[in-house]
Amino acid sequence: xxxxxxxxxxxxxxxxxGEVVERPASVVKELVENALDAGASSITxxxxxxxxxxxxxxxxxxxxxxxxxxxxxxRHATSxxxxxxxxxxxxxxGFRGEAxxxxxxxxxVELLTCTAGETAxxxxxxxxxxxxxxxxxxxxxxxxIVVRDLFFNVPARMKFLKKDVSEAxxxxxxxxxxxxxxxxxxxxxxxxxxxxxxxxGSGDLRAAIYSVFGKSFADGMxxxxxxxxxxxVHGFVSRPExxxxxxxxxxxxxxxxxxxxxxxxxxxxxxxxGSVMAGKYPACVLHIDLPAETVDANVHPAKIEVxxxxxxxxxxxVYHGVKSALQAGGGPKNVTLPRAPFxxxxxxTKEPPRQLSFQPEREIRPRSVSPAPxxxxxxxxxxxxxxxxxxxxxxSLWRPAQESTVYRPSVDIFVEExxxxxxSRETAVxxxxxxxxxxxxxxxxxxxxxxxxxxxFEKEPVRYLGEAFRTYLxxxxxxxxxxxxxxxAHERILYNRLREQAHEESQQLLAPLNVSLSRExxxxxxxxxxxxxxxxxxxxxxxxxxxxxxxxxxxxxxxDIAAAVQEIAGGLIDGRREIATERMEWIYASTxxxxxxxxxxxxxxxxxxxxxxxILVNKDIRTCPHGRPVCFEITRKELEKxxxxxx
Length: 647
Known about the structure:
alpha+beta; 8-stranded mixed sheet; 5-stranded mixed sheet; 17 helices
């Protein structure tokens, strides 16, 4: 018996359909691209249950003649390619003739169409790829295709679909990109009976950007228009201050087709160097127009990648176009600060600088506003202190201690100002300073409790020697030198505390913050709203692709909240978290990274001393949450070998 046999028509079509139709968004893409190729000026997309129950795409294009309707659903039947030479200069979005056949093979399809020369329209119905009926119907010029019960005959494919809201967001993202690629076409998006998106179709790209991404995003864009070497680049790029934490808002269109091109992406980012902060990426909506024979669109099954005959002209055009736009209109905006109201105060005090946090047992709470009594200042007792000394007599008491002094982990970055305890034998009362002397903020008293028995620096004190490049601490303990990255160390400490306080209440914002996201970012945030709330973010849907942030984790106070939300959303898109616990750990790592002291920040020696002690106490803290080393050790023996003192 022969082992090799030809598959029947139905099975072969199901296999082929898997290459074109992966999810409802694939159906929307193919049908809308056909409508654009038909010359439509208005396209309506309707979805129910994310597109699984119903997808309806209607246009006012040229329509399909009665005799061509059955042929349109045959595989490799197309009106856009005639000969082999046509593949060398593709000028349409579709050209393979596989879309309608693949869609019909895995759904129930109804086609309504009419051309300008016909007196009656045509209704054509298929089920599982097999024709059911073909009849006359009253219908205006154009085409409407209704796809119902997607994958009804392929139940295995249904298992791989996501929640309805995720599938709907993916399909809506396809409509958004097509609206940006063809601003001259008006798009209407309807989800579950509610109209969600309408673009004007005026041909103005900025108006399309406004409709898709909102006012705040559109206001942060500057125009690009540049021609070089036969390549025309036009569109918009974000101002430097409106740059993003990821690349999800970079949109490139080659001859009206949305593509992912490393050439254009690298050129845009290279042009922004020196203008955009390191770690940030420009957002853009750029159209690249070039002769059709110089680009090959037939290199990817989803037609999302293209190959250029020569990449250098494309790179140069994008680079110089973006660079010229930034130089012409990318300067900082003028900001007018409101005048503070006059307020009479009886005394002028300075708020103490923000402290680093190294006390894991303290609970993170909002700062209280209880002022300390102005009459007295509590000062810690320091060893070998002479009787009668005061702070003004002994200013060196607040300098970093010598080797003989034992430091202990102390204050937290979230310091609550508590009333000073009554004077006792452990505290000294210092009279208030002279009026002309500036009040110097004092660190909190060192802990008076007995240190834990297993702390290594009880027997070998930690001595802070200095800081290199405002980034690396140099400390000595016993016969070893330690070099500590202060950002990585502080990040790890905050990360551990966040994990311990996983259900910490969030800090409420005085005014909710509207954050504009891409369609993918928005879907990721909404899908993981519960995990974000557990991490301290209170986020709710604000319509379109915007979210409203009402609360944030305590550790993010004073940080760029919009950038933090965008960064977390980008991580969710990348699929870094498939299991809930892993997802939460990534959120904690991202939050801790943003809240930690940064390399280059100025820090007080007392803070750095306590940071070094906190790291050397816990031998388990040797890497940051991202895997970078926190510190490394050089022994005295190794150092003396370098100087030739030991052989």
